[in-house]
Please model this.
Amino acid sequence: MERVISVIVGSTKIALVHMEECISTQIVAKEYTYSPNDHIVIFHTWNQTAGYGRTGPWQSAAGNLAATWSFPVHVFSPSSMYLRTSLALLRLFEHYGIASTIKWPNDIIVDGEKCAGFLCEQLCPDRVLIGVGINVAVAPPGTSKAPAFAKHLDPSTQTIDLVGYLTNELLASADIPDSMALELYSQACTTIGRQYQHAQYGPLTVTGVTESCCLVAKIASGKYVVLTDVRSLQDLSPVC
Model:
């Protein structure tokens, strides 16, 4: 069952499309028929059966957050989507008293384990999609700890409540100057300063990121290279 709720926040029109269950909120957002009057559209489900991320499937059990935000590009810039979405999620976790860090490019880490992830895509020249998954109530297979949110949320709080907070943080992060967004991301990203093995360049040290969230690294020759593919790195440092 699908429900559409429209609200006006200031001069911003926000439509919430809620589904009891869907394959993937990101897929639904891609197939949605947008009207010229649509501003921000949020797709939320209680149960996502086959979500996906940058490198493969993202499992989202009932009780966890699965949602996709569809923004016009004049509201949320495609060039720095990963930086700004990361900062919005850090602020959301901070709101609930949860300390978190970023593992490049799109993982939010709590107590050494992934607690959230997101995927940014440009749907068309004038619209971007930000899909977010947060382990709120159920930990996925392979993790050893209960989700951090389970210890901090009031039992009456539902994932739809988190959608409201995160919407505010996404809009706030969209207004941060590029240079400040880059600085804040760099401060919170634990990938920076660590050593890795690269398939082409060999051993290297990550020294920073670009505004488009590519890694900047120093290789053995002393030269600097820009990297985009997380799958080509093998971590040489112990996970902290």
In short: The CA atoms of residues 68 and 131 lie 4 Å apart. The two ends are 43 Å apart (CA to CA). The chain has two domains: 2-187, 191-235.
